[in-house]
Amino acid sequence: MIDVKPYWTAPAKEYQGKIQIIEGPDEPTIAFPLVLEPLTPELSREAILSQARKLGPQPSDKTIQSPIRQLLDANGGAIHFKGLPLKNADDFSEFMFALAGSGERAWKPHEHVGMEVLRRPQANNVLTANEGPPSHFIGWHNEYAVSPVHPHYLALFCKVPPGSGGETSVCSSIALYDRLKKDVPGFIEGCSKKGLVYNIPHNAEQVGGIVGGNGLYKDSAFGPKPGEGEEMPETEEGKRAMVERKLLDLAIRGGWHKGIDKTDESLPVWQRRGFNWTWQENGDLDVVHRVPGTRQHPTLNQPTIFNALSTRYTNAVANNTFEAPFTFKKEDGTEGVSVPPHFAGLEEDEVIPREWVQKMDEWQHKLDSSITWDVGDVLLIDNFAAQHARWAWEGDRKVMASFWDQPGMEGVPLKA
Fold first, then answer.
1. What is the reported pTM?
2. pLDDT tens digits, 305-316
3. Could you tell me if residue 236 is inside a domain?
4. Count of domains forming the chain
């Protein structure tokens, strides 16, 4: 690991786990996540920005291995910055743009496509975190693993810490792959050769206070991109045609194409099957994504889990919906639907055996490190190396998010 002195120190915190990313007698044990804070209390925002620029990519860089990239690779893909003099969204934005660096290897703000999660802009490339109710556990996931278009990095910033609870958990995706490959090889094989299925509901209009809620026609979903000269079609038919065109483009970006040979067994099932969708009478849209569940880490060259199954598993357990038609009775007597994790199928998708997903859940809990928040904290996550989750909380909690991409930082799907 690079030396972070003389400015930074890496103190031990109670919430850090001690894990081996790859199990083995000769493999190192690390404190996860890495914690970095100024060696002496820092009150100057300019000093912090200057130090962040030193960690980020430089114009002279020939590879993506900047100091911040090396720190992520050596420490499980997650860094918790503490003791920062950041008070608001603008401070967080400036910190992230400093850390993103400059030159050809600099990080770029991620452009969201097909996103169903409502995130409200707070500052330049700073958005609200998921608006799901405080009582709702958001399970471990790689950010937007449901889609072919996902950020390479994400950062979370605490403006107001929760009264109680509300920790953000991180779990090594590479360690998760390593453990599951040994315990449930059939699950790993299915994630690669078949792929995973996600039923994504899109509200026609923006709806606050729920886990999803992004409006279908917003530019971060399937609406027109003003910067690209697009305009909203005038007719309902035109709007739907625009959405469907963008859905097909999203599937193509994932590896599917119109002339694909569904009998070609050298291709994974998710790629041969592609996406499909259903329009509801009220104008909402239900989309079915089929995507890979494993990828190759771009700098560590290690296989990694890449999914968003945890919440779906947790909900299916709570509602006992592991068998079709996946319906249950809500407290108010109405019928609800809770679809359990599925592998992609050529004709029909298939429920993943409950015991396989249960084993994943057990390992996520064992590998978990749940960080506690203070004002000004920033949690930086390599999206290909680590999953994150959010525990329920009481009181107030304001956490913001920022999403980034970097040239050369692609996680290629594993096919075997």
1. 0.96
2. 999 999 999 999
3. no
4. 1
